[in-house]
């Protein structure tokens, strides 16, 4: 595989080859036309007959024009015949030109018997040496074919045949990229960022550089959409198949990195895919926090779920405390199980677990930790609100405050 500098050298060399072929073939073509006096065969048919272009081809009088004008009247006027004769003259002249062009191509093919074969061989050799060469070849050949003035010339048809081959190579290369995405398997103990996500940025930047001003950008843009769609669909499949890493982590990290890459590249036609990647990342983050953060105040949550159920069944909030299972004494007993120092110790263990799950490349540890902090505060506020509503005069509160929670999370993050 070639490095970037070698690819640029190849690009320059290939452009030089194509540019050098043009004057050589053109000079030889002009020589053939002049030497074999082929120009004399191309004038309009009317001129060859030595007649004025406005004169009817039959050379007869007005009565001779009846079959051409579609009228049997001997008094038919001349203009229809003039128009028809001009059309016939032009058509015959074009046929002559086509015949001459064919003869010239035949001569050129006999003179340059191996040009197409050698050009195709040259293309395939570099395509085998480095698959990225097919990008440069496709763009360069497209430029020469699209800018050709004489599309029927020997060189244009030769370049056209080579372009067809280069398009096949281009599609095969991009299809191989897509296959590597769809067939991705990860056997590592820790999944981390998937290879196709890691490699996509360099791949896309290389393609964008090659196709920057090319008329073939639309071909590349279609492939970008197919590749990105393949990535979005493959990530959850890999996450499901990988037994050692949490599915939510694999999805969260890879969607996050892919979204970042897409935001930086700003590829045409991929805006909706970028939004999709963002939404999938947020869903995976939420699922991970819900699954692994859980409810650190589990007994309190269960207690107040029972309180909420009583209220829903018709018991007044102010009377819940008179229920034996939900008395003030029972609530104080549950609260005593969650002193501040024990809560902080549990959070430290959770941080270590999260750190073990995540990879450095994803750079999501602090993001996840903050999401868990917000979830803890949400649960705390829900418990606090029900306490105030159902036990308003009991002066019952947890052993720690929201400020304490913020301090716990901050201290743990800084200490690691």
TrEMBL record:
GO biological process: exocytosis; Golgi to plasma membrane transport
Organism of origin: Hirondellea gigas
Any Pfam family: Sec3_C-term
Listed name of the protein: Exocyst complex component 1-like
Span list, region Disordered: 47-88
Molecular function GO labels: phosphatidylinositol-4,5-bisphosphate binding
Residues in Exocyst complex component Sec3 C-terminal domain copies: 95-393
Residues that span the membrane, as ranges: none
Biased composition, class Polar residues, residue ranges: 47-57
Domain of life the protein comes from: Eukaryota
Comp. bias regions, Low complexity: 63-87
GO cellular component terms given for this protein: exocyst; plasma membrane
Signal peptide: none
